[in-house]
Amino acid sequence: MDGKEILAHQVRDDPSMGDLLYWGGSLKGRFTIKSAIKIIRGDDDAPADGSWELVWNLRVLQRVKVLLWLILHDRLMHNVNRFKRDLTNDPKCKVCPEHDETMAHVLRDCRAAREIWKQERNEMSPEIWPSYFALAIWWIWKWRCNVAFDKGDENPIDIRTFLLARFEETWRVLGDGEQNPNATSGQRVEALIRWLAPPVGPMYYKGLYHLFYQYNPWGSTWGNIVWAHSVSRDLINWEALEPALHESKPFDINGVWSGSATILPGNRPVILYTGLTATSVQVQNVAIPANLSDPYLRKWVKSNYNPIITPTSDVNTSLFRDLTTAWWSQGYWHIVVGSRRKHRGMAYLYKSRDFKKWTKAKHPLHSAPNTGMWECPDFFPVSTRGKNGLDTSTTGSNVKHVLKVSLDVTRFEYYTIGKYDANKGRYVPDNAKIDGWNGLRFDYDITALKGWAGIQAIPRSIWLDPKGKQLVQWPVEEVERLRANKVELNNRPLKSGNRFEIKGITTVQADVEVTFKIPNLEKADIFNSNWVDPQDLCIQMGSNVRGNNRDIVYDGGGSYGIVETAFCAEAKACLGALTWALAKGFKRIAMYTDCAALVVGVILLFL
């Protein structure tokens, strides 16, 4: 706008009013970036590269967008620009003074910036990465400003810890207004949840249940793992908090992996976890709450004496992880760490008097040949005289112990029941052969199609059966409050291959209870060992693992007694199906759920 245009604007002659300047580039007289671009270009077109549109459409805070706009126009006050404006006598970078501090140097080439970008594996989904990248740029610039004015550490390694938490929070908050208000809670969560692993540190503290779990916020496969943190007052309704642990220190810079939580005397919680060092050595670490008065335990501090356990020369440094909850016995705290020595799966036993200095026992708690790496071990007592739970340090004549491991070679979970000899530090199973159950075989390739992997099931109570030979589990009693709108169907004769609809179920989740009365089993098939794999059986029945066809259809001809029950919404949109099969000669219950469908499963009841 030239001088003539400015003079053409009339100025109000009113002593009671201050001076007003109207912008001639818009009808309302208000300055906007869009109107300025129009004047500069001399037409109504947007910038040719469209970069402004990419910036303003990011799901980040406005100040981050403004920073990106300044970067696009080289308006950042880095030292080279400050030198041009006589605001500094030195255009060099303060971290690496051999280089001029240009915009590219600050955000990309400086060794401090490179250290941050090196940690980013870019395993996020395409819709998330641009916003995360923008936020990373913002925090790098903020860190640089603090360093330039002597208000921050020249080591930026902890920026990423804060960055991950802030991004997750920003993504969730800014996304609420854009989501479909009619979407189910599961659909809302699916946009954020990516890769989810089993819980690693459940505990109860000051009226709240705490659940920690390994979590990848940015992708549906393993990677970028943090210790996510949720709390609940009733074990049913959970509130997600800021992640408790991120990789940030030399002893965990390449990963914060599985572990456990223990409540020490004086009601003092601690977290034990496996960290992966810069040289890819697996070590064991401890973290404590920053504020014990906070019942939510939002902040955790990694101890200065980490690592508390490093692998000795006889321990494989790449197969040494997943600490159990600690128990007190014989004047020592004890923990188990999973490992493998040659062909033997190992549960190494460590003990400590002060929870700081730990010593490996002469013998492992337990081991078994040809079982591979023992992942995620667990070791806990169970009562032989009732269903009540026990403290982890409980021993005695009416107590047995359970050792649970996940075998890396089979990807199944196994457990044994036996006795723990506290004097010798040995666990002896009741049966020499591992007794357990098959886990779910999972098609890892479909995780990218679904965009997520893993769920947290409802917590369960665990106790011994009356004969003391196997574990019994059942959802916690708090789940009863979720039951509503009971739908019953009684005295329905079922024939092989029959299908019928149960009306009145309008939710995507239903708890199904079925009672069979069978006049005889003469026509039932003899149990076939191939039926043990429920997923294979689903495929044989025509289940579509991608979830496009949520019915399991099978023509149960002959003596193979199959009845399918389809659960459909009032709108007749099929939500899923359950199929029951009866056979003779085996006592077992197996179940498979197609994770890509809402409610699809097969339950085999073997008599």
TrEMBL record:
**Record-level Gene Ontology MF annotations:** hydrolase activity, hydrolyzing O-glycosyl compounds
**What region holds the Reverse transcriptase zinc-binding domain?**
31-117
Annotated GO biological process:
carbohydrate metabolic process
Q: Which Gene3D superfamilies match?
A: Exo-inulinase, domain 1 (2.60.120.560), Glycosyl hydrolase domain, family 43 (2.115.10.20)
Keyword field contains Iron: no
Answer whether the UniProt record assigns the keyword Ribosomal protein to this protein. no
Keywords (alphabetical) are: Glycosidase, Hydrolase
SUPFAM superfamilies associated with the record: Arabinanase/levansucrase/invertase
Query: Residue limits of the Glycosyl hydrolase family 32 N-terminal domain?
Result: 194-437
Q: Could you say which protein family the record assigns here?
A: Belongs to the glycosyl hydrolase 32 family.
Instruction: List the protein's name.
Output: Reverse transcriptase zinc-binding domain-containing protein
| The organism of origin for this protein | Chenopodium quinoa (Quinoa)
